Amino acid sequence: MEYKYILILIVVVYLPVLITGQYTIRGVPESYAVLGENYRLQCNVTDSPSLVRFYRNNVIVCSSLSSTCESQPTDNRYKCGCINDNNTQLYLNISNINKQDDTTWSCRDGPENIIFNPTSDNIDVIEGKSQNVNCLADCKPDCNITWSKDGSTTILNNPLSLSTRDQTGSYNCTVRHTVLNKQLTKQLNVQIYYGPDELTFSSDVTSINIIEGRDQTITCLTDCFKCIYKWTGPVASSTKDLVLTQIKSNQEGNYRCEATNIKNTIPKTRSKSIQVNVHYPPYITSITSNAVNNETDEGSDITLNCNVDSKPVSTITWSSSTSTNTYIGQQWALTQAKCQDTGIYTCTANNGIGQSTTKSLPLNIRCKFILSPYTIIYTSSANNGIGQSPTKALLLNLYH
Ligand SMILES: *[C@@H]1O[C@H](CO)[C@@H](O)[C@H](O)[C@H]1NC(C)=O
Ligand SMILES: *[C@@H]1O[C@H](CO)[C@@H](O)[C@H](O)[C@H]1NC(C)=O
Ligand SMILES: *[C@@H]1O[C@H](CO)[C@@H](O)[C@H](O)[C@H]1NC(C)=O
Ligand SMILES: *[C@@H]1O[C@H](CO)[C@@H](O)[C@H](O)[C@H]1NC(C)=O
Ligand SMILES: *[C@@H]1O[C@H](CO)[C@@H](O)[C@H](O)[C@H]1NC(C)=O
Ligand SMILES: *[C@@H]1O[C@H](CO)[C@@H](O)[C@H](O)[C@H]1NC(C)=O
User: Fold this and answer.
1) Residue of the nearest CA to atom 10 in ligand 3?
2) C-beta of 364 in contact with ligand 1 (< 6 A)
3) Which atom of ligand 3 approaches the CA of 71 most closely?
4) How far is the CA of 136 from the centre of ligand 5 (A)?
5) Pocket flag, ligand 2, residue 46 (CB < 6 Å)
């Protein structure tokens, strides 16, 4: 009687969690091998690796080149190659099966097929919301998986942990086979969305004075990727620039810039206001006095008024053609005007913007009729016998 030992070969198929169907391996027959006899393993691959290796306990026993299907065994117990010249179907023949063969067998080595989890090669992350990217590879027995950023030699650990804006960039995941020293690299592009941070304006002020007719652009500044901007106020804008062209006084007012991140970030929106004042040169709207028809009697009190429209407020200066007296202020009061005060009164307004402007007002102070001992009254009358005779008098004051 010949005893046959039935040895169960545990054929473990290595498949990283997310990679299915890269290869399948099984024994023929599937569940046992007979001690001292031959045994066969089949390995099917779905892609076209340049080389397929068979491993016994993670140690290579035989390699088969895809191009030639040629067997490169480490021991004459093994022979490997392609089935029917098809380099996606491979076999390993093991002769004289022994007890040590009751162990784990695998084919392929890697690194192969780097993939990311999440799977995209481009990832958008919102700052503050941490996101991990795991780099996975079909790799047996073991691979060392590391990351590097923007060509830097600094080694980052897998999985990559992303959460801050400075992590935007291009990353390489490098998978290196620890035994074979073979490596594979795959690139991941990371964009961190952030902001808006505190808003400021191009000239860092909360109010700005612009001269009427001039152009001014106010830019809303914030650190943000990617924000949309909205200006509201007398003039609106949907960019970060508020462009005020030949500004008019009715465009004066409060403007608000609002920056909103297109991705949901915290805070999502920030806004800030700026007061825009429109300055313009003086315009004298009226020059008046309380003298009726610009005439009054000697001895009366006269108030002159100069009304000015300007921004900012103007300095108003009064002068007259009859004296060197001047007055600064909107209202010039002349008390007990004399008849020598008769003349032209001029008001000048200046607010530092553009040219100063002037307007004038005549003022006639009627002289008082004074009789003095030196006054001679010459009277002449005419008579032609019809009705009363008209009389006219001429007054002559003699000053000394
Ligand atoms: C490999 O593919 C062939 C043909 O499809 C099939 O007969 C065989 O069972 C497969 N082997 C494995 C290990 O999947
Ligand atoms: C090799 O085998 C696979 C199945 O494992 C099959 O799909 C393919 O067509 C075969 N190629 C050739 C050249 O026979
Ligand atoms: C591999 O082994 C099988 C038996 O298991 C045998 O029929 C076949 O001829 C062998 N192939 C080679 C190339 O040795
Ligand atoms: C992986 O590789 C890095 C850099 O090459 C090295 O510093 C690290 O020790 C390696 N880790 C393992 C487990 O081999
Ligand atoms: C990533 O690796 C590829 C291929 O090795 C290389 O060309 C590229 O410059 C690397 N990029 C970075 C950001 O390291
Ligand atoms: C008084 O002077 C103003 C300014 O010159 C002039 O516009 C106005 O007509 C004058 N009034 C009279 C009654 O002459």
Assistant:
1) 93
2) no
3) 13
4) 17
5) no
- Indicate whether this model's pTM tops 0.90: no
Domains within the chain, CATH numbers bracketed: 12-108 (2.60.40.10), 114-193 (2.60.40.10), 200-279 (2.60.40.10), 281-366 (2.60.40.10)
d(CA 348, CA 355): 10
Cα–Cα distance for residue pair 125/169, rounded to 1 Å: 12
At position 51, the amino acid (one-letter code) is L
Q: pLDDT tens-digit profile of 107-119?
A: 866 677 789 999 9
The verdict on the CB of residue 121 being under 6 Å from ligand 5 is no
How far is Cα 172 from Cα 187, in angstroms, rounded to an integer? 4
Of the ligands numbered here, which is closest to the C-alpha atom of 107? 1
pLDDT in tens, 4-13: 555 555 444 4
DSSP-assigned letters across all residues of 184-236: EEEEEEEEEEB---S-EESS--SEEEEETT--EEEEEE---BSEEEEEESSS-
CB of 24 within 6 A of ligand 1: the answer is: yes
The one-letter amino acid at 218: I
How many alpha carbons lie under 13 Å from residue 164 in its C-beta half-sphere?
1
